UniProtKB/TrEMBL annotation, chains A, B:
The keyword Repeat does not apply. The keyword Transmembrane does not apply. PANTHER family: LAO_AO TRANSPORT SYSTEM ATPASE, LYSINE/ARGININE/ORNITHINE TRANSPORT SYSTEM KINASE. Belongs to the SIMIBI class G3E GTPase family. ArgK/MeaB subfamily. This is Transporter. It comes from Lentzea guizhouensis. Gene3D superfamilies: P-loop containing nucleotide triphosphate hydrolases. InterPro entries: AAA+_ATPase, GTPase/Isobutyryl-CoA_mutase, GTPase_ArgK, P-loop_NTPase. SMART domains: AAA.
Length: 315, 315
């Protein structure tokens, strides 16, 4: 592979050239050795995009909701990017095909950029690939970046931890899902969206959520934001404006309480740590010999870990 | 807290005293400073337990299947331990209550030990807490350890990566779940179990799975194991013996192809790395100042990471 013209790419991305943006995200996805240079070139232009995370179990209508939100933000004159993260997929080929389908009526709109990222199995994984893609889109001048995930597992929670505001989507009649996920989703949701609200049970789902929210658990420290519950029928855009309003209300609340700055500080800190850990891991070198002694019962894994780092770390 | 009598605890755990086993696992869960000493005392007695991972979406009947397997292994004269891992729960209080309920007819059976672990938010998380709990049970002489998880997300995949043999459970009529999870479950399943096989659609689910398996994707390198598909009605123990047989067949296949040793080597290596990374992370110290400069766009996260490690790592 030839050298990458990083400065040129970043300049063209700043001029909103979609192919340059796509190329930069590909470099991130591939864990290119040019990443530090890319990150350095992007840094001065970051910090402006509003990042909205979208998560929920399969079948709740995340893609449809994302598309409806894209339309609503476009109507408000904002440039919008979407990153669809699939932590369980090792493929990006299928993802690319999906992107073309998803672009749909946005295909000729230069104010919209949609990209799937298959992050599983990548070196360092989600923990830093997605944040770097966000930096690309931020520097490229997108006002809003929607980060959509496939489910509500731990890795999804990590992804939405990147967001300024996190939407958790549910649909009526998925009680099992609520039950299974409730510990997690109550903590990460800034706005609950009950989609497919024209179906039976939507009111009950909304009531259940409000009850769960009323039980609290979010008041560990600092000011308290109570996530609103918004009902939508994303397929017909019903209620989507109310979601946009709820996002705006959350942003205003965060600005007022210093929470936006606090979240971004935590996010940057986590990002730095993830990269540092990844860098350190590459210096460890092979662990096979130590692992063999652990399997044989000659050494315990803590002692082995000490031996692994003793050659690399200062006392 | 007083000092922990590690040698005494390990000795009593080796004598199959349930309270000593429980106490050692609590030390693991709490990330006790005595952990390295515990691990060193356990090491000579490890490597004998057969570890079976059990995963699947909520509602497929994991707990019922686990209990049926416990009964089957007990009938075969084996001592059996269960670790139920809930990566989304920050609580262990509720888990304890759940354990008493789950013990059910095993409550007076000293050959059975059941324990829930809530691993979320723990320092280092799943990546090393669960393996250490496995070491406790292994050293305590359990012949089989079943590791059951709540779902099929990324963290579940990490958990089952601990297992010698991984069962993936499905139920009829959960097509969405198959679709969403298929990339992941095809790779991790050594045995597929279609539970609730008395329901409509069980044959179709089994056929779909067999078709997916036939498409391959597992033949990247080394010998090929084709996961069998076993139908069960766990509530009435129907088909459970066939699951036990499938597990035995997989174990025999692994032994024949050197795969068991290879898996355990990989597992130990990952465990050592996770502990080492955790140790390194604690040495990094606070990242707030660097994070602030990244948020301000003065520094990129890669450069910040270099600064973070430069004070700690040898050149």
């Amino acid at each position: 592979m030839g050298a990458v013209d990083v400065a040129g790419l970043v300049g063209r991305a700043r001029d909103a050239e979609p192919r340059a943006v796509a190329r930069l995200i590909s470099l991130v996805e591939q864990g290119s050795s040019a990443l530090p240079e890319v990150a350095a070139a992007l840094a001065p232009f970051t910090g402006n995009a509003q990042v909205v995370g979208i998560t929920g179990a399969p079948g709740v209508g995340k893609s449809t909701s994302t598309n409806a939100l894209v339309r609503a933000f476009r109507t408000a004159g904002k440039r919008v990017a979407v990153i669809a993260v699939d932590p369980s997929s090792p493929f990006s080929g299928g993802a690319l095909l999906g992107d073309r389908v998803r672009m749909g009526d946005h295909a000729t709109d230069e104010g919209v950029f949609i990209r799937s990222m298959a992050t599983r199995g990548h070196l360092g994984g989600l923990s830093w690939a997605t944040p770097q893609a966000l930096r690309v889109l931020d520097a490229a001048g997108f006002d809003v970046v929607l980060v959509e995930t496939v489910g509500v597992g731990q890795s999804e929670i990590e992804v939405v931890a990147l967001a300024d505001t996190t939407l958790v989507l549910l649909a009526p009649g998925m009680g099992d899902g609520i039950q299974a996920a409730k510990a997690g989703i109550l903590e990460i949701a800034d706005v609950f969206v009950v989609n497919k609200a024209d179906r039976d049970g939507a009111d009950q789902t909304a009531r259940d959520l409000k009850y769960m929210i009323s039980l609290g658990r979010r008041d560990r420290s600092g000011p308290l934001w109570r996530p609103p519950v918004v009902k939508t029928v994303a397929a017909s855009a019903e209620g989507v404006d109310a979601v946009v309003e709820a996002i705006a209300a959350h942003q205003a609340w965060m600005a007022e309480h210093g929470e936006l700055a606090a979240r971004r500080l935590r996010r940057a800190g986590a990002e730095i740590e993830a990269i540092a850990v990844d860098r350190v891991r590459t210096r460890f070198g092979p662990v096979d010999a130590l692992a063999g002694r652990v399997v044989a019962g000659e050494l315990d894994p803590f002692a082995a870990a000490e031996q692994l780092i003793s050659g690399n770390l200062r006392a």
